[in-house]
Amino acid sequence: MRVAGFLVLFLLSTLVHPLVLLPLAILHALSWRAYELLIIAVCADAYFGVSYTLPYYTITTLVILLAAEWVKPHLSFYSNHS
Questions:
Q1: Domain boundaries defined on the chain
Q2: Is 33 helix (H, G, I), strand (E, B) or coil?
Q3: How many other C-beta atoms can be found within 10 angstroms of the C-beta atom of residue 67?
């Protein structure tokens, strides 16, 4: 499921607006340790030619990943307490 989610996000990253992918990326990051999203972000920055100025897709993805890893222990479905 993780690989299928990554492939879907990778294919959609060139077809739809990035704001459409944002909720899917957040859900993917909350479900798994989604460091592979950085690959999509770097590819998107290179594809749109923003890697030499400000790689905002990569920066946004890093913020999403760090926030997801910080929030995971505080979410009830990750908790072991009844």
A1: 2-78
A2: coil
A3: 13
- Contact criterion met (CB below 8 Å) for 58 and 45: yes
Identify the three-state secondary structure at position 31: helix
* Tokens (6 digits) for 77: 């479905």
Distance CA 36, CA 6 (A): 7
Residue % of the chain over a pLDDT of 70: 90
Please tell me the least confidently modeled range out of 5-14, 42-51, 72-81: 72-81
* CB distance 58 to 42 below 8 Å: yes
DSSP the chain: -HHHHHHHHHHHTTTS-HHHHHHHHHHHHHHS--TTHHHHHHHHHHHHT-TTS--HHHHHHHHHHHHHHHHGGGSGGG----
Q: Tell me which DSSP letter residue 12 carries.
A: H
To the question of pTM greater than 0.70 for the whole model, the response is: yes
